[in-house]
Give the backbone structure.
Amino acid sequence: MALVHKLRGIYKSVLLSSVSQSWSKDIQKVKPNLFVRNTSTSKPSYEKKEVNVTFIRANGEKLLAKGKEGDSLLDIIVNNELDIDGYGACEGTLTCSTCHLILTKEDYDRLPEKPTDEELDMLDLAFDLTDTSRLGCQIIMTKELDGLQVKIPSTIYDARS
Amino acid sequence: MTNSGILLKCLRQLSSQNIIPHICVVGAGPAGFYATQQILKSINNVKVDIIEKLPVPYGLVRFGVAPDHPEVKNVINTFDKIAQDIRVQFLGNINVGRDITLYELKQYYHAVLLTYGASEDKKLMIPGENLKNVISANHFVGWYNGLPNHQNLNIDLNKTDAIILGQGNVAIDIARILLSPIDKLKKTDITSYSLECLSRSKVRRVWLVGRRGPLQASFSIAELRELLKLENCKTYWRSNDFKGIQDIVPNLARPRKRLTELMLKSIEESSFDNRICDKEFHPIFLRGPVEFLGFDSVENVKLSVNELEGDHFLKQIAKSIGEFEEISCGLAFKSIGYKSTQIDPSIPFDLESGRIINSSGKVEKGLYTAGWVATGPIGVILSTMANAFTAGKLLAKEVELMKQMPGYHELQKFLRKKGICIINYEGWKKIDNEECERGKKLGKPREKIVDISEMIEIASN
C-alpha cells in the first residue's frame, strides 16, 4: 500500500509540473490548486487498472492526466488538479453543463453508455454544443478507453479574452 | 500580446512594485464570487473585499435557487473556498448607496466591481395589478427561500386555481413548488413558515401562461421534464397551441428541437393518460395578460388571444387579435422577469433595461460590473460564470496602481463611525452553523434564519 501511495505521489508531481506550464502563460504568478475541487465522486481503488486521458484545450494545449477504471472524466480532472476555469460547478450531479467535453465521432460512438435525456437536457444549455458533446461527469473510464483524447470547448469566456 | 503591451505591463509592474491592489466587489452572489476567483488567479498579491447588503453570502444561490434543487447549490463549495482565501474578505451587512456611496468606495479601493444582481420585478402595468393575491414571483421565491424582505408576504393559498404569467424557469419553479407533494418539500431547506402555509394550500390547478407560442417558450427542457414527471400531477396542453409546429420541428436547432419534441410527446401521452390526479398543470400559449379582475382580491384574469407576427420564429412578436379569454383564479403570479436598480446615483444606468451601462464589464475607469446587473436577468449560472470571468479578468488586467489605497482599513473605520456592524465570514459561519443545527432538529438540511437582527446577534456572539 505504501508503495502505491509513493507511486501515486510521483505521478502526481510529474503531472503537476506539466500542468504548471499552462499557468506560466498567465499574466502574473498564480497560486496553484486553489480552487480545484479536492473531493472525488468515486471511491479510489488501487486494484483497478490505470488509464490515461488527454484533455485538449481550445488553443491546442494538451493536458495529460491519469485515472483509474471506473473514474469519470470529471473525477480525473479533479484528482489531477487540472486548472480548468469553472469546470464541474455542480460536482457531477447533472444540474449544470460546466463539465462539457467534445469527443471525436469515433470515440462518441464507442462509449458504452449513451447519454440519458437528463444529460442531453443539460448539454442543450452548454456553449459550443456539438453532436459529439458529452458531460465529463457522465463518461466513465474503462480499460478500453485508455488513451482517450477529448477537447475542452472554448467557452464564451475564452473566446472573448 | 504586442510588444508595446508587454512594455506597458513591465512599466506598470515596475512603478507599482510595492502597491497591493485593493479591489472592492459589491454583491456576494455568483457573479461576485466568480469574478473574485478570476482576480485571485490573475494577481498573486491582491486584496479583495466582497461587500454584501445582507449579513449572509451567496445571493441567488441561497435566495433564488429552488429548495428542491439542492444540487445546484453545490457551487457554494467553490464560493466557500474563495471566501476562505487569505486575500479575500467577506463583509456582510453593508448597504452600498445607503451606508456608503460609490464615490467613497472609490477613495478606498483601486477598483470597484458591481455585482449586485437584479432584485426588482418588472411590472406588467395593467389594471388590477394591486389586487390582493396578485403576487410578484420575486416576492414569492424570496418568501419560501427566506429572504428577509419578503418573509411577511401576504398570500392566501386557500384557492383552487393559480395562474402564473410568464414561462421562464422562475415560473416553472413556482409551479413546481405549488404542485409538489408537501412531503417532498419537507426534506428541503425551504423555510418552515412557508412550508406550514403550503401544507394547508388548496391550490390544485396551476396555469402557466405565455404570450407567444411553444417555439418561443422560455423554460429550459430540464425544468419542464421535471414538472411533467411530478408525482400525482397531470399535464393538460391545448393542442390548438401547437398547430403547424410539428412541420417546423425538423428545421430547429438541437436545444429548441428537443424542447419542442418533449412538449409534443407529452401532448401525445396525455391523450392516453387516464389517471385521476390531485393536481393539474395547464401550460397555455398565445395569451397575454390584459387585466386582473376582482373586488378586493383577484378572481379572474383577462387574457388577450394573440397571434404571432414576423417571419422567423425567434423574432416573432405576439399581437392581440382583439379576442379575449378569462381564466378564473384566486391567486395570480407575475413572473415576467427581474430588473436591477441604480443603487447609487453616480452609476451609469439604463433605467429602461434595468442594468448598468457597460462594455464587456467595464463601466468607466476603475469601475466594472458583472452578472445580472450588467447583462440583464437572463441565463443560467453558467452564463453568469462566463460573464464574471470576463469582467474579473479585465479588471485584473487594467487595474491602475498609481498610489497606495487604504482598502478595508479605512472602510471599516468609516463604517464603524456610522455605527454599521460588519459581519465577516467567521460571523456567517456561525449563522451557517446555527441554521444547520436548527435544520437537524427538523429533519432538514437547514432552517434559514430570516431576521436580520437575529443573524447579526448570532454572528456577533
Observations:
- DSSP finds 17 helices and 19 strands in chain B.
- The CA atoms of residues 215 and 260 of chain B lie 7 Å apart.
